[in-house]
Amino acid sequence: MTAPTDHQTANARTLISIDAMGGDLGPAAVVAGCLKSARANPDISFVLHGPEAELHALVNKHADLKERTTIRNATGVVTMEDKPSQVVRSGKDTSMWSAIEAVRSGEASVAVSCGNTGALMALSMIRLRKLPGVNRPAIAVLYPSSNASGFNVMLDVGADIRADADDLLRFALMGMSYARNGLDLKCPRVGLLNVGTEEHKGRSELKEAYDLIRDHQSDAAYEFVGFVEGGDISGNMADVIVTDGFTGNVAIKTGEGTASLIGQRLREAFKYSPLSRLSSLLAYTSLMRLQKKIDPRRVNGGVFLGLNGTVVKSHGSADATGISAAIKLAAQLSENGFNDKLAARVAASLPTEETTTE
Amino acid sequence: MTAPTDHQTANARTLISIDAMGGDLGPAAVVAGCLKSARANPDISFVLHGPEAELHALVNKHADLKERTTIRNATGVVTMEDKPSQVVRSGKDTSMWSAIEAVRSGEASVAVSCGNTGALMALSMIRLRKLPGVNRPAIAVLYPSSNASGFNVMLDVGADIRADADDLLRFALMGMSYARNGLDLKCPRVGLLNVGTEEHKGRSELKEAYDLIRDHQSDAAYEFVGFVEGGDISGNMADVIVTDGFTGNVAIKTGEGTASLIGQRLREAFKYSPLSRLSSLLAYTSLMRLQKKIDPRRVNGGVFLGLNGTVVKSHGSADATGISAAIKLAAQLSENGFNDKLAARVAASLPTEETTTE
To answer: CA distances (Å), A304 to each of A67, A137, A270, A311, A312, in order?
Structure first.
């Protein structure tokens, strides 16, 4: 990314399409997240989807946000209870639909939503359509880990509740491409999540996927490290963790819940006695440094991989910091043309072609 | 548990059968764990299975352990690579087989092993046999949580890689019984692990299990809280988390891995600067208090539920502290007659009988 030149105008900014509704904290949190991002990054602008009057009232408070934001009226809201099939059939008036439409039309390069994951995935699939060679798209997240970059790519974490061996191979290819482009790893290590690292363990589709992923590694510029276990998601055995969306979803939520429990216990430990309260004052900077490193809000944002267009799913409970992190990720992916690279990678690797794509 | 009286002799101690082999750290760690437990609990004694000469050399160093330990020679070792079916067919000479045999014969009331989980489960099933009404036994663990007792019961965490709706109902009943007897909860809250809390979400066997567990709750003295998510494993939504062994295994290992990553980052944060090193000295007690609360070794030990006899599976990587925690759990379960209560509970709840059992 280069610094903006004099010739660049507001139109040259990366336009991000944002679903203002459907998050647990409502549109105020989403607008606060946009504001945070706008102040941190001069190169982005927004098209915000939701009830016009409400959004105007929120955006107009901030002149620096207002001048970079277009509001698109959408009166319907997709709730967490709505069935994906319902939303696809009759959700045309919703802010989520409108946000995806802006990507479909080419107006924006990427959409961000913190609404109902199932509905967002279903809408994204129907409206943006799958890339050639992709049967099941996947949601990928960056999970804090002990490897050099500080993160592993993990997918699928909930686009679908199942995946067969072929899907798992495609997840490996898409995750590898994300790790190359997002984490700057030349030859990412790919691991397949299982209940043990021995080759004979696990479900039959995993054994089949093991062979497929192993056999593709020479063509596709990744190193297959074989089966990995839950503990390796935060470890340094692999850079890309491949699994089905049910297991992946449970795993990341378990990890987040455990991290949050430890944070709570840490605060309790430091409130225990006058001495521990004193020590917590002195330890404040260290603790803040730690919190910054493990705060799940800072890596908020799963990316839907395998579609004609980029969609970033933020946590339903994301606050301004979380939404701003999702916007940052969306802007990065949009700016580096990641989706085209991924499409080329999947297309090149699948039959037996040996075209090399970044 | 009452204090030992003058009439009690070494024979009145709770005898625990211990597989000394198959753990990552070898028999020295197992013997060190026994020593720790022996010193903490005067009411237990051991029968230790493995290569006689090696075990004698380790045990004889400690007079207080020696007088409470019988060594049973077994030359074979089940490795982590051995297939369960192999071990069942030709593992008669192994320390694992011998350890389970001591429970089967009634000599010991409970067995502890840190060896190959699949082999231990297969041997336990074949030699101890399943309880009436149980198709798939399960491994249950205590997972640190924010509820009153500080722990949730979670099962299955790896006895099998699949479970149908009927199995999940039995897991609910067995987990509930464990929570009543192990955590002293009169009416445990049972949750079914899924990727969302909405009723229509998830795999079909989960929807079926939802109905079964809900319909049994009035007879069986638990409260069904419905679907729970990964974050609830360490939360306060349920006391018992029911899932299949694949998902459960990945989830607990993810949680442990995440906790260990945070611990590592916490140490780094406190080494960052002279001030943070000073503050860590002052914070030492607080940090130790925290570590004690979240140390996975202190809740080490999964319990096999659904068999005619109790088997405690310790982590393969357990050290003396971990093994001692598993022995402590084994002794508690043995002393309170938990397995008979669980058997009665499953038998009573399954058809439509309404016998109430503790």
So the answer is: 29, 7, 40, 6, 6
